[in-house]
Amino acid sequence: MAKSIDVSDLNIYYGDFLAVEGVSMTIPARSVTALIGPSGCGKSTFLRSLNRMHEVIPGARVDGKVVIDGQELYAPEVDPVEVRRQIGMVFQRPNPFPTMSIYENVLAGSRLNAKKLKKHAADEIVEKSLRGANLWEEVKDRLDKPGAGLSGGQQQRLCIARAIAVEPQVLLMDEPCSALDPISTSAIEDLIHDLKSDYTIVIVTHNMQQAARVSEDTAFFNLAGAGKPGRLVEMNATRKIFSNPDEPSTEAYISGRFG
Ligand SMILES: Nc1ncnc2c1ncn2[C@@H]1O[C@H](COP(=O)(O)OP(=O)(O)OP(=O)(O)O)[C@@H](O)[C@H]1O
Asked: Where along the sequence do coiled-coil regions lie (predicted)?
């Protein structure tokens, strides 16, 4: 199920504006890769290029290659809508469908994928996904209540349940804990740890400790200068990035000297 991702010479544009330049990296399967770097260096833009969400913005485009287990993501025959279904994404702010029940929130993606879902199969998906997102025990007695009635941390876990319900190959997370308190953050981090045995996870985070805690590899992005595009400075084992990075600018960033 989990897939590795090979990115080569990827340039990412908003119209004429080159936001991210020349990224090449290999993101290993069944592992967590953290993307770090100062504001505006293109972490979210890069993340969205991995499931073709970037192109949703008018005029936005990429050139270069993204290959997921041998399949080129930007090949002409690939349907971007299908890609977005297969590569799950969790955003900064939990965004459950507010009036939809917890049960239906989990199934939202599966209902799009399968025309008719039998009650028994639907129940199974809901329980498995909520268990996978570490939320089952907290909500099993109120599955018919609206998603908006949950706490922020529970809502974020509900969004993760919704993302994993379709059994994606890859899970992209854009600062999934930035709107959460420390206890909910810790629950999500534990969950990320559990999920990585099944999924390839890429997470954008501003929190250095979080990158150090949850990821195997870390990619440090930076701007080459004001008005210049973001680029990948260094990707290495997280252990190495936080103890003995190859690049002085990585060292400066992680030690809090800029960014
Ligand atoms: N919809 C958009 N249209 C035009 N430019 C955009 C758009 N979204 C982002 N950008 C620009 O692309 C560059 C990279 O932005 P991006 O949000 O990817 O950076 P980031 O590293 O994720 O930042 P942050 O850490 O602040 O979230 C910035 O110069 C930003 O202004």
From this structure: none
